[in-house]
From TrEMBL:
One of the primary rRNA binding proteins, this protein initially binds near the 5'-end of the 23S rRNA. It is important during the early stages of 50S assembly. It makes multiple contacts with different domains of the 23S rRNA in the assembled 50S subunit and ribosome. One of its GO terms (molecular function) is rRNA binding. This is Large ribosomal subunit protein uL4. Gene3D superfamilies: 3.40.1370.10. Residues 43-87 are annotated as: Disordered. Pfam families: Ribosomal_L4 (PF00573). Part of the 50S ribosomal subunit. Belongs to the universal ribosomal protein uL4 family. NCBIfam families: rplD_bact. GO terms for biological process: translation. It comes from the Bacteria. The gene is rplD. InterPro entries: Ribosomal_uL4 (IPR002136), Ribosomal_uL4-like (IPR013005), Ribosomal_uL4_dom_sf (IPR023574).
Length: 206
């Protein structure tokens, strides 16, 4: 089992925790990680782009000049793609870019991403992040104490004060254990998780 240090919000080490190898110590499958990222980005695409082909633009029904004898190249329509105002060749049309991964693949990709962060020593466990009030400065101080800038912070359910205190900090995103995803884990330099959140992740994904 991977053994990592546990810190408090002052940035001081207060103990250690053993991470479950079934979640944080798996064999990294880069192919599934790549698929998960591509899938998430593809599923976010609206797919609403549209341009008109030569059959959809208006006008151009008449042949602009006779076929021979003018000195011009032959032309059949003023709405052909080479004309100004003509249609677009292979014009984009609305489409659905999304594709699905099965549950086993998603879980394996998530475990691989978490394992990568642990191996890179960019997975920080905090005993708890508890605030009496919603204040951005409090959360900023926690990040400063942990010497972290761009981070994904995984919180346990119901920790509203911490969640709202972090929302105005650039390059910081909070997530609950049931909303973490591969893209966010890889996007942010460091993953910070409370002990309660780690326990929830192990319970769900082990």
């Amino acid at each position: 089992m991977a053994n990592v240090s546990v810190y408090n919000i002052e940035g001081k080490e207060v103990g250690t925790i053993d991470l479950n190898d079934a979640v944080f110590g798996v064999e990294v499958n880069e192919h599934l990680v790549h698929m998960a990222v591509v899938s998430q980005l593809a599923n976010k695409r609206q797919g609403t782009q549209k341009a008109k082909t030569r059959s959809e633009v208006s006008g151009g029904g008449r042949k602009p000049w006779r076929q021979k004898g003018t000195g011009h190249a032959r032309q059949g329509s003023t709405r052909a793609p080479q004309w100004t105002g003509g249609g677009v060749v292979f014009a984009p049309t609305p489409r659905d870019y999304s594709f699905k991964m099965n549950k086993k693949e998603k879980r394996a990709a998530l475990k691989s991403a978490l394992t990568t962060k642990v191996e890179e020593k960019k997975f920080i466990v905090v005993d708890e992040i508890a605030f009496d009030e919603i204040k951005t400065k409090n959360f900023a101080n926690v990040l400063k104490n942990l010497d972290v800038s761009k981070a994904l912070v995984v919180l346990e359910d119901g920790n509203t004060n911490a969640e709202l205190s972090a929302r105005n900090i650039a390059d910081v995103k909070t997530a609950k254990t049931n909303t973490i995803n591969v893209y966010d884990i890889l996007k942010y330099n460091t993953v910070i998780a409370t002990k309660a959140a780690v326990a929830n992740i192990e319970e769900v994904y082990a």
